[in-house]
Amino acid sequence: MNILIYYFSGTGNSKRIADVAAEGFKQQGHSAQVKSIEDGQLDPQHLSAEIHGFVFPVYFWGIPRIMEKFMHTLPPASGKKSFLLLTAGNVYAKSLTLNQARKILEKKGYAMLGGDTIAMPDSFIVVYDPPPVDKATFKVKAAEGAAAAFAKKILSGEPKIQKSSFSEIIMRFMYVFYRTVIKFHIFWPGFRVDNKCNSCEICAKICPVKNIQMVGGKPTWGKHCEACMRCIQLCPQKAIQTYFGSEKKNRYKEPHLEIKDLIN
Ligand SMILES: Cc1cc2nc3c(=O)[nH]c(=O)nc-3n(C[C@H](O)[C@H](O)[C@H](O)COP(=O)(O)O)c2cc1C
Ligand code: SF4
Ligand code: SF4
Questions:
Q1: Most exposed: 71, 95, 120, 222, by fewest CB within 10 Å?
Q2: What pairs with residue 191 in β-bridges?
Q3: Where does CATH 3.40.50.360 sit in the chain?
Q4: Cα 18 from chain centre
Q5: CA-nearest residue, atom 7 of ligand 3
Q6: Among 231, 251, 253, 257, which is best to mutate for testing ligand 3, by the most ligand atoms less than 8 A from CB?
Q7: Segment 187-242, tens digit of pLDDT
């Protein structure tokens, strides 16, 4: 089988899971490659691939806006097989986002093999203090094992996506609230920069949607943030803060993620 995995990843968790799953497929004799959706472009192998996988984080109990937009721009799939593999800080309400994505893909004409959600370190620094390196590495290792196991089963249609429970559907309203009432991409992120900033411009270069402009040597944030937390988590000086007190919090990036690769 020729498998193409599209992914979005703010702090590297979903990228790592996409890479491990691709490696798992290769070990079974398949051809597999990963493609970031940040440029919004289809992979040159889009049509020839026999299976399309979609890997991304759960944001506010739903699909990240950037991935949802990408899915809507996909050409008709005419029965092509697909799967979903999500990462999240916890796997509570895991069917909710899987079903949200499944519906979009099925409308495009995909045949859904199945999907799962894997727990990884929580990147939402606004609310949580990201785990220190040793704890994060432990959780990433467990997630890598889960991704490898997923690659062994998904081509035979396991795990299936379960129906969303009633309580999950209630949580769906929270997602709609964040997206349409709070409009977090406009009012978000409420980041500020402190005097540790050395004007390296890394934050502006790595923002997946070019939402950061350097003004007078300091970052300023625009109004189309995806809330991916990449800028605040990866700033080498820890100079980006939220308004809710992030000075003393850890910063997190998935250990395999390299800033230079994001810039390139
Ligand atoms: C804005 C935002 C919202 C999030 N919302 C949820 C959520 O609703 N449920 C959850 O389990 N994790 C949530 N998370 C945690 C991420 O899903 C998790 O850390 C994920 O692995 C990050 O993947 P990435 O490194 O590929 O971006 C959220 C993270 C961010 C940044
Ligand atoms: S990455 Fe950090 S140090 Fe570099 S310009 Fe941005 S805020 Fe300043
Ligand atoms: S401004 Fe920061 S949080 Fe928003 S999309 Fe860019 S890197 Fe992500």
A1: 222
A2: 242
A3: 2-168
A4: 10
A5: 207
A6: 231
A7: 566 899 999 999 999 999 999 999 999 999 999 999 889 999 999 999 999 999 99
Q: How far is the CA of 253 from the centre of ligand 3 (A)?
A: 14
d(CA 152, CA 167): 31
* CATH class held by domain 2-168: alpha beta
User: Tens digits of per-residue pLDDT, 42-54?
Assistant: 999 999 999 999 9
Q: Which two tokens stand for residue 87?
A: 């990462």
Q: How far apart are CA 90 and CA 93, in angstroms?
A: 9
Number of other residues whose CB lies within 10 A of the CB of residue 75:
10
* Cβ neighbours of 64 (radius 10 Å): 23
Average pLDDT value for residue range 64-82:
97
What is d(CA 118, CA 24) in angstroms, rounded to the nearest whole number?
A: 16
**What SS3 string covers 63-119?**
CCHHHHHHHHHCCCCCCCEEEEEEEECCCCCHHHHHHHHHHHHHHCCCEEEEEEEEE
| Whether the Cβ atoms of residue 208 and residue 226 lie closer than 8 Å to each other | yes
Place of tokens 């943030």: 225
CA distance 189 to 191: 5
184-263 belongs to which CATH class?
alpha beta
